[in-house]
Amino acid sequence: MTIADAEPAAAPVPSQSTYQSRVADYWNAEENPVNLELGKIDDLYHHHYGIGDVDWSVLDPADSTASASAERQERVTAELHRLEQAQADLLASHLGPLTPADRVLDAGCGRGGGSVVAHLRYGCHADGVTISRKQADFAAAQARKRHIDDKVRYHHLNMLDTGFPAGAYAASWNNESTMYVELDLLFAEHARLLRRGGRYVTITGCYNDAYGRASREVSLINAHYICDIHPRSEYFRAMARHRLVPVHVEDLTAAAVPYWELRKRADHLVTGIEETFLAAYGNGSFQYLLIAADRV
Ligand code: GPP
Ligand code: MG
Fold first, then answer.
1. What does the pLDDT read at residue 1?
2. What is the Å distance from ligand 1's center to 203 Cα?
3. What's the burial of 107, exposed, middle or buried (CB within 10 Å: 0-12/13-18/19+)?
4. Which ligand minimizes its atom distance to the CA of 225?
Protein backbone atom coordinates (compact mmCIF):
# COMPACT_ATOMS: atom_id res chain seq x y z
CA MET A 1 0.00 0.00 0.00
CA THR A 2 1.35 3.42 -0.85
CA ILE A 3 1.00 6.35 1.46
CA ALA A 4 -1.45 7.94 -0.97
CA ASP A 5 -3.79 4.91 -0.57
CA ALA A 6 -3.91 5.09 3.22
CA GLU A 7 -7.17 6.22 4.82
CA PRO A 8 -6.47 9.58 6.43
CA ALA A 9 -6.90 9.30 10.20
CA ALA A 10 -9.57 11.67 11.48
CA ALA A 11 -7.85 14.61 13.15
CA PRO A 12 -8.99 15.06 16.75
CA VAL A 13 -11.00 18.22 17.36
CA PRO A 14 -9.80 20.31 19.05
CA SER A 15 -6.23 19.65 18.01
CA GLN A 16 -4.64 17.96 21.01
CA SER A 17 -2.08 15.43 22.18
CA THR A 18 -2.90 11.87 23.27
CA TYR A 19 -2.33 13.02 26.86
CA GLN A 20 -4.85 15.81 26.42
CA SER A 21 -7.35 13.35 24.98
CA ARG A 22 -6.99 11.19 28.11
CA VAL A 23 -7.51 14.30 30.27
CA ALA A 24 -10.63 15.13 28.24
CA ASP A 25 -11.84 11.54 28.81
CA TYR A 26 -11.51 12.10 32.57
CA TRP A 27 -13.58 15.30 32.47
CA ASN A 28 -16.14 13.85 30.07
CA ALA A 29 -16.73 11.04 32.59
CA GLU A 30 -16.47 13.09 35.81
CA GLU A 31 -19.66 13.33 37.89
CA ASN A 32 -18.38 13.80 41.43
CA PRO A 33 -21.15 14.77 43.86
CA VAL A 34 -18.68 17.26 45.38
CA ASN A 35 -18.94 19.21 42.13
CA LEU A 36 -22.54 18.54 41.05
CA GLU A 37 -24.27 18.82 44.44
CA LEU A 38 -22.47 22.07 45.26
CA GLY A 39 -23.20 23.54 41.83
CA LYS A 40 -26.90 22.71 42.04
CA ILE A 41 -27.34 25.11 44.95
CA ASP A 42 -27.25 28.22 42.75
CA ASP A 43 -26.21 26.88 39.35
CA LEU A 44 -22.63 28.02 39.77
CA TYR A 45 -20.58 24.94 38.95
CA HIS A 46 -16.94 25.18 40.02
CA HIS A 47 -13.92 22.94 39.53
CA HIS A 48 -11.69 24.38 42.19
CA TYR A 49 -11.35 24.26 45.94
CA GLY A 50 -12.42 26.69 48.64
CA ILE A 51 -10.77 29.25 50.88
CA GLY A 52 -11.55 30.92 54.17
CA ASP A 53 -12.72 29.97 57.63
CA VAL A 54 -15.30 27.24 58.07
CA ASP A 55 -18.48 27.76 60.06
CA TRP A 56 -18.07 24.57 62.07
CA SER A 57 -21.62 24.81 63.43
CA VAL A 58 -22.70 23.08 60.21
CA LEU A 59 -21.47 19.86 61.83
CA ASP A 60 -23.44 20.35 65.04
CA PRO A 61 -24.70 17.02 66.23
CA ALA A 62 -27.90 16.10 64.50
CA ASP A 63 -30.31 13.77 66.22
CA SER A 64 -30.27 10.33 64.73
CA THR A 65 -33.34 10.73 62.54
CA ALA A 66 -32.86 10.45 58.80
CA SER A 67 -34.22 13.94 58.20
CA ALA A 68 -31.80 15.53 60.70
CA SER A 69 -28.84 13.81 59.12
CA ALA A 70 -29.99 14.88 55.63
CA GLU A 71 -30.22 18.47 56.85
CA ARG A 72 -26.70 18.25 58.26
CA GLN A 73 -25.42 16.99 54.91
CA GLU A 74 -27.13 19.89 53.17
CA ARG A 75 -25.49 22.38 55.54
CA VAL A 76 -22.04 20.87 54.87
CA THR A 77 -22.62 20.94 51.10
CA ALA A 78 -23.68 24.60 51.27
CA GLU A 79 -20.69 25.53 53.42
CA LEU A 80 -18.21 23.92 51.01
CA HIS A 81 -19.91 25.76 48.15
CA ARG A 82 -19.65 29.04 50.04
CA LEU A 83 -15.87 28.52 50.38
CA GLU A 84 -15.49 27.62 46.69
CA GLN A 85 -17.51 30.70 45.80
CA ALA A 86 -15.17 32.81 47.97
CA GLN A 87 -12.24 31.47 45.97
CA ALA A 88 -13.96 32.36 42.66
CA ASP A 89 -14.76 35.86 43.97
CA LEU A 90 -11.17 36.41 45.04
CA LEU A 91 -9.88 35.47 41.61
CA ALA A 92 -12.50 37.65 39.87
CA SER A 93 -11.62 40.62 42.10
CA HIS A 94 -8.12 40.64 40.57
CA LEU A 95 -9.35 40.76 36.96
CA GLY A 96 -10.66 44.30 37.09
CA PRO A 97 -11.44 47.06 36.70
CA LEU A 98 -13.41 45.94 33.65
CA THR A 99 -16.39 47.35 31.79
CA PRO A 100 -19.31 45.61 30.05
CA ALA A 101 -17.51 46.29 26.75
CA ASP A 102 -14.50 44.22 27.84
CA ARG A 103 -13.88 40.58 26.95
CA VAL A 104 -12.34 38.02 29.31
CA LEU A 105 -11.03 34.49 28.75
CA ASP A 106 -11.60 31.60 31.17
CA ALA A 107 -8.89 29.10 30.19
CA GLY A 108 -9.87 25.59 31.30
CA CYS A 109 -13.38 26.68 32.24
CA GLY A 110 -14.77 23.35 33.42
CA ARG A 111 -18.56 23.52 33.87
CA GLY A 112 -18.39 27.27 33.49
CA GLY A 113 -18.92 28.82 36.95
CA GLY A 114 -15.94 31.19 36.80
CA SER A 115 -17.07 32.89 33.58
CA VAL A 116 -20.51 33.49 35.07
CA VAL A 117 -18.94 34.97 38.22
CA ALA A 118 -16.83 37.38 36.11
CA HIS A 119 -19.81 38.35 33.96
CA LEU A 120 -22.08 38.99 36.95
CA ARG A 121 -19.37 41.11 38.59
CA TYR A 122 -18.32 43.24 35.61
CA GLY A 123 -21.03 42.78 32.96
CA CYS A 124 -18.21 41.78 30.60
CA HIS A 125 -18.22 39.32 27.72
CA ALA A 126 -16.64 35.99 28.65
CA ASP A 127 -15.28 33.11 26.58
CA GLY A 128 -14.70 29.83 28.41
CA VAL A 129 -12.62 27.11 26.77
CA THR A 130 -12.32 23.46 27.71
CA ILE A 131 -11.09 20.33 25.94
CA SER A 132 -14.07 18.45 27.37
CA ARG A 133 -17.02 18.50 24.99
CA LYS A 134 -19.31 17.51 27.84
CA GLN A 135 -18.18 20.40 30.03
CA ALA A 136 -18.51 22.92 27.19
CA ASP A 137 -22.06 21.74 26.42
CA PHE A 138 -23.03 21.74 30.11
CA ALA A 139 -21.66 25.27 30.63
CA ALA A 140 -23.39 26.58 27.49
CA ALA A 141 -26.72 25.14 28.69
CA GLN A 142 -26.24 26.94 32.01
CA ALA A 143 -25.61 30.26 30.23
CA ARG A 144 -28.78 29.78 28.15
CA LYS A 145 -30.74 29.01 31.31
CA ARG A 146 -29.54 32.32 32.82
CA HIS A 147 -30.22 34.20 29.55
CA ILE A 148 -26.63 35.42 29.43
CA ASP A 149 -25.59 33.32 26.44
CA ASP A 150 -25.27 36.46 24.31
CA LYS A 151 -22.32 37.52 26.51
CA VAL A 152 -21.01 34.30 28.07
CA ARG A 153 -19.92 31.66 25.57
CA TYR A 154 -18.22 28.32 25.96
CA HIS A 155 -16.03 26.65 23.40
CA HIS A 156 -14.74 23.11 22.94
CA LEU A 157 -11.16 24.27 22.38
CA ASN A 158 -7.59 23.74 23.51
CA MET A 159 -6.50 26.64 25.73
CA LEU A 160 -2.98 26.44 24.27
CA ASP A 161 -4.26 27.11 20.79
CA THR A 162 -7.61 28.90 20.88
CA GLY A 163 -7.50 30.59 17.49
CA PHE A 164 -9.14 33.65 19.09
CA PRO A 165 -7.91 37.06 17.86
CA ALA A 166 -4.71 38.55 19.27
CA GLY A 167 -5.12 41.40 21.75
CA ALA A 168 -8.88 40.89 22.06
CA TYR A 169 -8.97 40.29 25.84
CA ALA A 170 -8.78 42.69 28.77
CA ALA A 171 -8.26 39.84 31.25
CA SER A 172 -7.75 36.09 31.30
CA TRP A 173 -7.25 33.42 33.91
CA ASN A 174 -6.60 29.79 34.81
CA ASN A 175 -8.36 28.57 37.93
CA GLU A 176 -6.59 25.32 38.85
CA SER A 177 -5.95 24.27 35.28
CA THR A 178 -2.28 25.19 34.71
CA MET A 179 -1.12 21.77 35.94
CA TYR A 180 -2.44 20.18 32.76
CA VAL A 181 -0.16 22.09 30.39
CA GLU A 182 3.36 23.31 29.73
CA LEU A 183 3.57 26.82 31.13
CA ASP A 184 5.57 28.24 28.22
CA LEU A 185 2.89 27.19 25.76
CA LEU A 186 0.13 28.44 28.05
CA PHE A 187 1.60 31.85 28.80
CA ALA A 188 2.53 32.40 25.15
CA GLU A 189 -1.17 32.03 24.31
CA HIS A 190 -2.33 34.31 27.16
CA ALA A 191 0.24 36.95 26.14
CA ARG A 192 -1.00 36.73 22.57
CA LEU A 193 -4.68 37.04 23.54
CA LEU A 194 -4.32 39.81 26.14
CA ARG A 195 -4.16 43.42 25.08
CA ARG A 196 -1.25 45.48 26.37
CA GLY A 197 -2.00 46.32 30.01
CA GLY A 198 -4.35 43.34 30.26
CA ARG A 199 -4.48 41.29 33.43
CA TYR A 200 -3.71 37.58 33.83
CA VAL A 201 -4.65 35.75 37.03
CA THR A 202 -4.08 32.19 38.15
CA ILE A 203 -4.93 30.31 41.31
CA THR A 204 -2.98 27.10 41.35
CA GLY A 205 -1.49 24.33 43.41
CA CYS A 206 2.27 24.26 42.99
CA TYR A 207 5.05 22.31 44.61
CA ASN A 208 7.39 24.19 46.89
CA ASP A 209 10.95 24.58 45.58
CA ALA A 210 12.12 25.22 49.14
CA TYR A 211 10.93 21.70 50.08
CA GLY A 212 12.85 20.23 47.17
CA ARG A 213 11.23 18.15 44.46
CA ALA A 214 7.67 16.84 44.21
CA SER A 215 6.72 14.99 47.41
CA ARG A 216 4.89 11.69 47.60
CA GLU A 217 1.67 13.62 48.26
CA VAL A 218 2.18 15.86 45.24
CA SER A 219 2.75 12.75 43.13
CA LEU A 220 -0.46 11.20 44.48
CA ILE A 221 -2.41 14.35 43.54
CA ASN A 222 -0.88 14.17 40.05
CA ALA A 223 -1.99 10.56 39.70
CA HIS A 224 -5.48 11.30 41.01
CA TYR A 225 -6.22 14.04 38.46
CA ILE A 226 -3.82 12.93 35.66
CA CYS A 227 -1.95 16.22 35.94
CA ASP A 228 1.64 17.42 36.43
CA ILE A 229 1.94 20.02 39.20
CA HIS A 230 4.66 22.59 38.45
CA PRO A 231 7.14 24.02 40.96
CA ARG A 232 6.43 27.54 42.19
CA SER A 233 9.60 28.88 40.51
CA GLU A 234 8.47 27.77 37.08
CA TYR A 235 5.48 30.13 37.12
CA PHE A 236 7.67 33.20 37.52
CA ARG A 237 10.28 32.04 35.04
CA ALA A 238 7.67 31.29 32.39
CA MET A 239 5.76 34.54 33.01
CA ALA A 240 8.97 36.54 32.64
CA ARG A 241 9.56 34.85 29.28
CA HIS A 242 6.07 35.82 28.07
CA ARG A 243 5.52 39.50 28.89
CA LEU A 244 3.57 38.70 32.07
CA VAL A 245 4.81 40.75 35.04
CA PRO A 246 3.49 39.71 38.48
CA VAL A 247 1.73 42.51 40.32
CA HIS A 248 0.27 40.51 43.22
CA VAL A 249 1.28 37.14 44.66
CA GLU A 250 -0.66 35.61 47.55
CA ASP A 251 0.04 32.38 49.36
CA LEU A 252 -3.44 30.94 49.99
CA THR A 253 -2.17 27.72 51.58
CA ALA A 254 -3.33 28.51 55.12
CA ALA A 255 -6.68 29.76 53.80
CA ALA A 256 -7.16 26.50 51.88
CA VAL A 257 -6.75 24.11 54.82
CA PRO A 258 -10.17 24.62 56.53
CA TYR A 259 -11.96 23.68 53.28
CA TRP A 260 -10.12 20.35 53.21
CA GLU A 261 -10.74 19.77 56.92
CA LEU A 262 -14.48 20.14 56.33
CA ARG A 263 -14.47 18.21 53.04
CA LYS A 264 -12.72 15.31 54.83
CA ARG A 265 -15.71 15.10 57.19
CA ALA A 266 -18.30 15.26 54.39
CA ASP A 267 -18.96 11.55 54.01
CA HIS A 268 -21.55 12.16 51.30
CA LEU A 269 -19.07 14.11 49.14
CA VAL A 270 -15.51 12.82 49.72
CA THR A 271 -13.53 11.60 46.72
CA GLY A 272 -10.61 10.07 48.62
CA ILE A 273 -8.02 12.78 47.92
CA GLU A 274 -8.79 14.86 51.03
CA GLU A 275 -6.14 13.45 53.41
CA THR A 276 -3.50 13.76 50.69
CA PHE A 277 -4.15 17.49 50.26
CA LEU A 278 -4.00 18.02 54.01
CA ALA A 279 -0.73 16.08 54.24
CA ALA A 280 0.77 17.95 51.27
CA TYR A 281 -0.08 21.33 52.77
CA GLY A 282 0.95 20.18 56.23
CA ASN A 283 4.44 18.98 55.30
CA GLY A 284 5.22 22.13 53.32
CA SER A 285 5.68 20.39 49.98
CA PHE A 286 2.66 21.95 48.30
CA GLN A 287 1.26 25.47 48.16
CA TYR A 288 -1.96 27.09 47.00
CA LEU A 289 -1.01 30.30 45.24
CA LEU A 290 -2.68 33.26 43.55
CA ILE A 291 -0.60 35.16 40.99
CA ALA A 292 -1.92 38.23 39.21
CA ALA A 293 0.22 39.63 36.40
CA ASP A 294 0.12 42.51 33.95
CA ARG A 295 0.60 41.84 30.26
CA VAL A 296 3.22 44.37 29.18
C1 GPP B 1 -10.28 20.69 41.02
O2 GPP B 1 -11.23 20.15 40.22
C3 GPP B 1 -8.88 20.64 40.61
C4 GPP B 1 -8.24 20.15 39.55
C5 GPP B 1 -8.93 19.55 38.50
C6 GPP B 1 -6.82 20.10 39.27
C7 GPP B 1 -5.86 19.78 40.33
C8 GPP B 1 -5.70 20.95 41.20
C9 GPP B 1 -4.67 21.19 41.99
C10 GPP B 1 -4.66 22.41 42.84
C11 GPP B 1 -3.53 20.28 42.08
P12 GPP B 1 -12.55 19.50 40.80
O13 GPP B 1 -13.34 20.47 41.57
O14 GPP B 1 -13.22 18.87 39.63
O15 GPP B 1 -11.98 18.37 41.78
P16 GPP B 1 -12.81 17.52 42.83
O17 GPP B 1 -13.70 16.61 42.05
O18 GPP B 1 -11.77 16.79 43.64
O19 GPP B 1 -13.59 18.52 43.64
MG1 MG C 1 -14.57 20.20 43.18
1. 44
2. 12
3. buried
4. 1
Ligand 1 atom showing the smallest separation from residue 229 Cα: 11
Report percent pLDDT > 70 for the chain: 95
CA distance 218 to 279: 9
Cα–Cα distance between 210 and 222 in angstroms, integer?
Answer: 19
Report the nearest-CA residue for atom 8 of ligand 1. Answer: 176
Q: What is the pLDDT of residues 9-30, one digit of tens each?
A: 666 667 889 999 999 999 999 9
pTM for this prediction: 0.95
| Domains, the chain | 18-295 (3.40.50.150)
Give the pLDDT mean for 137-153.
98
Instruction: Extract the runs of DSSP E, i.e. beta strands, from 176-223.
Output: 194-207
Calculate ∠ Cα 47-108-119, nearest 5°. Answer: 80
DSSP for 232-296, please give it. Answer: HHHHHHHHHHTTEEEEEEEE-HHHHHHHHHHHHH-TTT--S-HHHHHHHHHTTSEEEEEEEEEE-
| Cβ contact 244:183 at 8 Å | no
Cross-strand pairs, 248: 292
Compute the CA torsion angle 264, 106, 225, 240 (nearest 10 deg).
Answer: -110
Atom 3 in ligand 1: residue holding the nearest Cα = 48
